[in-house]
Design brief:
Helices cover 60% and strands 10% of the residues. The protein has 89 residues and is mainly alpha-helical. It has a 3-stranded antiparallel beta sheet with strand order 1-3-2.
Amino acid sequence: MLAAAGHPARFEILQLLVTGPRPIAELQTALGLASPGQLYHHLKTLASAGLVEQPERGVYRVPGHAIFPVLALAAAATDVAERSGTETG
């Protein structure tokens, strides 16, 4: 789970999805990715770790069982960034 969420782009995807489901086009725009292939690669990795799911075609979300782990990861990353003097996402 940590390896999947540890990549900066995947962590940003999780931050976007924890607030609710989003269509693939919206994620691609928000992330500034030129290729949808890059986004699908990251989503596949996150889905394999159980951190995202696809409730309908072209829409992704963080499943209910993963919301608290994702929020915990975000809180830990923020804490580490603040202690080291850098910012996250």
